[in-house]
Specification:
Blueprint lengths: L3 H4 L17 H11 L1 H7 L2 H12 L3 H4 L2 H5 L4 H14 L4 H7 L12 H5 L11 H10 L7 H13 L1
Helix pairs in contact: 2-3, 4-7, 10-11
Keywords: Signal
């Protein structure tokens, strides 16, 4: 495996990611810690970025939780991609997504509630997305997420 150094949390060079599979959130987190988010993202090929974004869009908590770290170094394209992938993840794992969106609306942050919950898809909106996302977000019962949940529901309903 090409990424063995990542699993051991060893020193990570940006060239180590070239052409290799992104296999775990721990690998990505270690690379961001060592290089910084901007350098890490710049080191990825377009295919690697697509794979990383797809993993975030899967809704798995460990991948979704990387979004704030990645947002720190995201350029415009990657920022837009993060918002879209979190939107894909929203109906699958609303609690994880609500946990990573920026709690302060209106500050222009990449992970702003309106960007993630405002149905940000560039192409076709997935069939039944709005209904599924609303149902999923409404099912979140964590009192800590009450305010962000309400704002997300509002953004979904207005979209």
């Amino acid at each position: 495996m090409k990424c063995r150094a990542f699993a051991a949390a060893a020193v990570v060079s940006s060239s180590a990611w070239a052409g290799s599979a992104i296999t775990s959130p721990a690998q990505v987190s270690a690379a961001i810690e060592q290089q910084g988010a901007a350098t890490f993202l710049a080191s990825l090929s377009a295919d690697d970025i697509d794979r990383l974004m797809d993993k975030i869009g899967s809704g798995r908590s460990e991948w979704v939780s990387l979004a704030p770290k990645l947002a720190e170094g995201a350029d415009a394209g990657n920022a837009e991609g993060l918002g879209i992938e979190l939107a894909y993840a929203l109906p699958k794992n609303p609690r994880a997504v609500l946990d990573v969106v920026d709690p302060l609306e209106g500050d222009g942050h990449i992970l702003e509630v309106s960007r993630v919950c405002g149905i940000p898809f560039i192409e076709t909106v997935p069939a039944g997305y709005k209904v599924k996302a609303l149902r999923a977000v409404r099912s979140v019962t964590d009192p800590r997420l009450r305010d962000v949940k309400a704002r997300c529901i509002d953004a979904l309903e207005k979209s």
